[in-house]
Every structure is written in C-alpha cells, then in structure tokens.
Amino acid sequence: MGKTTGPVLVLLGPTATGKTAVAVEVARRLDGEIVSADSRTFFDGLDVVTAKPTELERAEIPHHLIDRVPFDGVYDAMAFRRDVERLLPGILERGRVPLIVGGGTLYVGAVLRGIFDGPSKDAAFRRSLADRATETLHDELRAVDPAAAVAIHRNDRLRIVRALEVHASTGRPISELQSEAEPLPYDFVVFGLRRERKDHRRAIGERVDTMVATGLIEEVDRLIERGLAPEAQAYRTIGIPEVVDHLAGRTTEERMKEEIVRQTWALARRQLAWFRRDRNVAWIDVTGRSIDDLAAEIVGRWREHRR
Length: 307
What we know:
The chain has helices at about 20-30, 55-60, 75-95, 105-110, 125-130, 135-145, 145-150, 155-170, 175-180, 195-215, 215-225, 240-245, 255-275, 290-305; strands at about 10, 30-35, 65, 95-100, 190-195, 280-285. By secondary structure, the chain is an alpha/beta fold. The chain folds into 2 domains: about 10-115 and about 180-305, 3-Layer(aba) Sandwich (Rossmann fold), CATH 3.40.50.300; about 125-180, Orthogonal Bundle (Histone, subunit A). Helix 2 (about 55-60) links the parallel strand 2 (about 30-35) and strand 3. Helix 1 packs across helix 14 (about 290-305), helix 6 (about 135-145) crosses helix 8 (about 155-170) and helix 12 (about 240-245) packs antiparallel against helix 13 (about 255-275).
C-alpha cells in the first residue's frame, strides 16, 4: 500500500512526561491538529482524572477524539484505528499537520504497527475464566502463545483474557495474528518523551496532588452518582477505584494518593517498556527542560524530515 502525501507527527511516551503541554506548543508552531491517543481521554466526564487538555487549549488547537464516547461506553483499538483513518485525510487536506498524541500503547500500536480484526468478545468464555487467578491465566497463555506472554504483563488481566479468548476462538496465537497486521499507510515521524527516573516519580506525585486539588474526588463522586459501575471500561482508569475506596471510608486521602502514585508509576514503566520496542522512535529526555525548548527541538527535527 502506497504512502500518502503525509507525513504525520506522532508524540508518544509514558504518562506524566508532559506530552499534552508539549503537543499544544508544537501544534501552535506547525499549525497542527491533535488526535488524542490517550486510552481514557476518549471518555466524556473523565476530565480531572485523565488530565485532559484545558478548555482554552482545546479552543485554540483543534483536538479530536477527546470525549469520543460516554463515560459508561466502550472504545477499543480497532475503533481508534478507524477513527484515525477517517480523520487524517481531512487534516492533511486542510493543509495542517496531524499530531497523534498519547500514551495508549494498544491505540498507538494499532496505527503504527497495525491491528488484526479479531473475533468478537465471547461472554461465556470470559465468565469461565472469572474465578481464575490472573497469574494462572498468564501461565496458561505462556503455554499457548509464549510471544504474547512476554509482551503482556502478568497483572494485565484484560489483555491476558483477550489473548486466551482469541486463541480459543481461532486456534491461532494472538501474537501470530498481530504480526500479520499492517500499519496505516502514512509516513509517521515518531517522537517519544521520557524523564529521568527520580524526576518522573516526582512529576507523578505532583500530578496526583494537582488532580486532588482541582477536584478529582468530586469528579469521581459525580461519575459514581451518574451510574459509573465497576464493570465499565472507564471505571478501570487509575484514580477512580482508589477514590471510590476513599469515599467508602476504606482508605485515607493520603493512602489514596499514595496508591494512585504507585499505580501510575507501574503504568509508566509498562508503557515505556512497550514503546522502547519500536526502533523508529526518536527519544527526547524532558528532564529539566522547558516546554518551549522541547517544542523547538521537535519542530526543528520535523522540518529536517520534510526537506
């Protein structure tokens, strides 16, 4: 499949590396439009807990796919890929630069690496696994699909179950099916943001403090009152179960914040490990650097690529 006139700028990296702010500044300088690839900003109503771009930023720079589905809805990597396929031609035709921005590994992967159109969810099969320990399921996955077991964290129950479900339905390993998938036919210029370890942990702690100060607890309380249930996809967003436990009196606010930091740090490490497998990423260390400085470097490299 031939490439379009592209190219398309991609800004990825683990959570709490400043992607949102840097992307907005890059978009200002390149007359760009941002396509969110954050796995939770797709959900309407999850504003503080996902640190969405501000209303002012979204008014200045066109943002796509934020608030894409209701808070109790469902959105997956295949739907994201189809949305990106729909959006990119229009952005390019308007003479603007598309920026795909986010840390959603499966979503970014669906665009850069491809995704197969797998079997539908099998509710009966999933119920049959409900009482099984996640580590046991991971061991079973290793037996039928060693490559997928290496790629999927032992605690990532959703992806483990999906991989087992695909194997049970098709008789083929999900890793084999994924290897046959094709990326979207665009010239992707991919930048990755990362932080020095101590600085990253500090940034995560500061981010959680800011979230609480700007209404995280109140936002989760409203979502629960509106009907957000534990089985919903959005409920699994880091910050929501922890706040629910606090609201129920099972944890103090301080313990709640500590757990959000711990879970966010674990997520950041998984994201970084996943992104590092892609050799086409130009990594930029953000430690101690300003947004303007980072944006200037990305814009400079982008323009070099265009020559």
